[in-house]
Design goal:
Metal Binding Protein, Guanine Nucleotide Exchange Factor, Chain A; 131 residues
């Protein structure tokens, strides 16, 4: 798959912190309940930590008690999905549609009407509060 933003490993390493690189470019997962954006409740938006594309709003966020920021929907066209067989069988990985950065996974066990739980690493996203 190709993305609007394509960079070499070296370019990504130069731009991202070690933790952010591991998550966004190598599909690492931060420890549960350790992410800085887990308890963000203020109004605002969440953007990709690699390219700043808008991904989620706080209106889509909910407390899943899973240990990672969770959302019941994403902004249309901002996320692509692919099958992930790396752990525990088959999961659905979510990536930024603009730069291909690994964000986390989406599950069909959400408690809201969408039934979805976008489980996202804090290290993969940034939060901008509403004015």
């Amino acid at each position: 798959m190709t993305y609007e933003i394509e960079k070499t490993k070296q370019e990504w390493r130069a731009e991202l912190s070690a933790e952010r690189y591991a998550v966004l470019r190598e599909a690492a997962t931060e420890a549960p309940f350790s992410g800085s954006l887990l308890h963000v409740d203020a109004n605002g938006v969440f953007t990709c930590g690699g390219c700043a594309q808008l991904l989620f709003s706080t209106a889509q966020k909910f407390d899943s008690a899973s240990g990672w920021p969770s959302f019941d929907a994403c902004e249309p066209g901002t996320i692509v999905e692919r099958v992930d067989r790396s752990l525990f069988g088959r999961r659905t990985e979510i990536l930024c549609a603009k730069c291909g950065g690994h964000l986390g996974h989406v599950f069909d066990d959400g408690p809201t009407p969408t039934g979805l739980r976008y489980c996202v690493n804090s290290a993969a996203i940034d939060f901008t509060p509403a004015n």
